[in-house]
Write a structure and sequence with these properties.
It is built from 15 helices and 27 strands. The chain is of the alpha/beta class and about 525 residues long. It has three domains: about 5-200, Glutaredoxin, CATH 3.40.30; about 210-320 and about 450-525, FAD/NAD(P)-binding domain, CATH 3.50.50.60; about 340-445, FAD/NAD(P)-binding domain, CATH 3.50.50. The strands form six sheets. The protein has an eight-stranded mixed β-sheet, covered by helices on one side.
Length: about 525
């Protein structure tokens, strides 16, 4: 059976963009996965006259390098790059084959100027939606600078290597044999770790920008929606964010976005970015806001790196992040058995015992997913009943290797110094402590608003006990000219579709504020 199937036609169109010959040099053994990789590479080569398959030698088998004839640059995969990594593979082939990467010219210049030899290894799983961004960033660097080398390793293919390095979260990146970082990273963030002046240069580029009519802080669904609505009014619009997509990037299947029957978080984030870039929006990434200074005419948003942006109106759309348990052992074993993404890290716990903390929809869905991989799944819920939808509860109860513990307060995560070995909870009915031997703990207890950076407003901005920015149904806050939208607010429901709506509402409210308070806004052009 063909490996690519119906994707072959789409890939053929992509490979028509090649301008240079590309060689897929495979290191194979006699195993079934090598045969599968060989079939994959042969099918790819059949799609373009510029792609050929050869044999090579490498310690990891199966693996292959993507090479441009006559150059030292190459990209290596110790994986059969399907699933989320198919896009990484296609982009690598195109970039090695002469098609330019969609990266800012100044960033590419920083990559070319790196002084040193860098050997990167990224451990990934094909079900991880966070891994491709890291893989693609390091692949671009290895194509641009021959002194940068990168191999992407599928942990399920090289279990001994993963266990030897105690990799329990993906993506995990090693540099020159030492652990470099874990989790999602952009190419700019990688550069900031390698070049101490990169972050300063990036922040300096923001200095001296003219005041914005609307400055949106945060680029999840709410922030992008707000920026698009503001830009459509013909007013000067800025979008400041660490990354475009926000929490959506950590979401897998999305089936409740009206008119879109199914999509996935990274794809939706890409769509959001493409839509935003089709308008005259000054997109500033990756940057983090560290303070808001309200003003009479202009507000100041202070940015990490010591610079500030000015704006007549500001829309706060910084979203939320996974809430943590706050118990002993959680930080010590984070990414070494404690994780927050079952889709990303679940495959690393195949055949092992895991616990899921949280009985809402996300927790029960995680337990159901993990039950297909793990030997045993124990769901621990604080209250006396699960909060998830009944259809999910029925599915969970039908699984023979899943159990539920109710009225349980998680008090500690234990380990052997290198990885998780257990979870301790208190029975809230009897008060007794119970130990559950597990190899991994998946925390699924809701979201925490990203609003700490607003604490310096001296109380001018109302923030409730849950850390949410208090706003009315128009997104209006206690500070004139400052609006808010999305998961960082007091909105009743934290959903993608509601965030999109609240972003547009906040932008319309900001525009209404501008035309009532600012003399030089071109109302006729904006309305037209």
């Amino acid at each position: 059976m063909p490996v690519l199937g119906q994707l072959a036609g789409q890939l053929k169109q992509h490979f028509a963009l090649l301008s240079q010959p590309v060689e897929l040099a495979a290191a194979l053994d006699d195993g079934p996965r090598s045969r599968q990789l060989a079939d994959f590479l042969d099918e790819v080569a059949a799609l373009s006259e510029l792609i050929t398959v050869t044999r090579s030698d490498d310690a990891r088998r199966p693996s292959f390098a993507i090479r441009r004839a006559g150059t030292d640059g190459s990209v290596r995969f110790a994986a059969i790059p399907l699933g989320h990594e198919l896009t990484s593979f296609v982009l690598a082939v195109l970039q090695v084959g002469g098609h330019p990467p969609t990266v800012k010219p100044e960033v590419l210049d920083q990559v070319r100027q790196l002084d040193g030899d860098y050997e990167f290894t990224t451990y990934l799983s094909l079900s991880c939606q966070n891994c491709p961004e890291v893989v693609q960033a390091l692949n671009v660097m290895s194509v641009i600078n021959p002194r940068v080398r990168h191999v992407a390793v599928d942990g399920s293919l090289f279990k001994d290597e993963v266990e030897a390095r105690n990799v329990l979260a993906v993506p995990t990146v090693y540099l020159n044999g030492q652990e470099f970082d874990q989790g999602r990273m952009t190419i700019e963030q990688v550069l900031s770790r390698l070049d101490s002046s990169a972050a300063e240069k990036s922040a300096h580029a923001l200095a001296g920008k003219a005041p914005f009519d609307v400055l949106v802080v945060g680029a999840g669904p709410a922030g992008v929606s707000a920026a698009i609505y503001a830009a459509r009014k013909g007013i000067r619009t800025g979008l400041l964010a660490d990354r475009i997509g926000g929490q959506v990037l950590d979401t897998m299947a999305i089936e409740n976005l009206v008119s879109v029957p199914y999509t996935e978080g990274p794809r939706l984030a890409t769509d959001l970015e493409q839509h935003a870039r089709s308008y005259d929006i000054d997109i500033m990434t990756p940057h983090s806001a560290v303070g808001l200074v309200p003003g009479d005419d202009l507000h100041r948003v202070e940015v990490e790196g010591g610079v500030a942006l000015r704006a007549r109106t500001v829309i706060i759309a910084t979203g939320a992040r996974w809430r943590q348990l706050g118990v002993p052992g959680e930080q010590e074993y984070r990414n070494h058995g404690v994780t927050y993404c079952p889709h990303c890290d679940g495959p690393l716990f195949k055949g092992k015992r895991v616990a899921v903390v949280g009985g809402g929809n996300s927790g029960v869905e995680a337990a159901i997913d993990l039950a297909g991989l793990a030997a045993q799944v124990t769901l621990v819920e604080f209250t006396g009943e699960l909060q998830a939808d009944e259809v999910l509860q029925r599915k969970l109860r039908s699984l023979p290797n899943a159990s539920v513990v109710l009225s349980a307060r998680t008090t500690r995560i234990t380990g052997d110094g290198g990885k998780v070995t257990g979870l301790t909870y208190e029975d809230r009915v009897t008060g007794s402590a119970r130990d559950v031997p597990v190899d991994g703990v998946f925390v699924q207890i809701g979201l925490l608003p990203n609003t700490e950076w607003l604490e310096g407003t001296g109380g001018a901005l109302a923030i409730n006990s849950r850390g949410e920015v208090v706003a009315d149904d128009r997104g209006t806050t206690a500070i004139p000219g400052v609006f808010t939208a999305g998961d960082c607010t007091t909105t009743a429901y934290k959903q993608i579709v509601t965030a999109l709506g609240s972003g547009s509402t906040a932008a319309l409210s900001a525009f209404d504020h501008l035309i009532r308070t600012t003399a030089d806004v071109d109302v006729e052009a904006a309305v037209a």
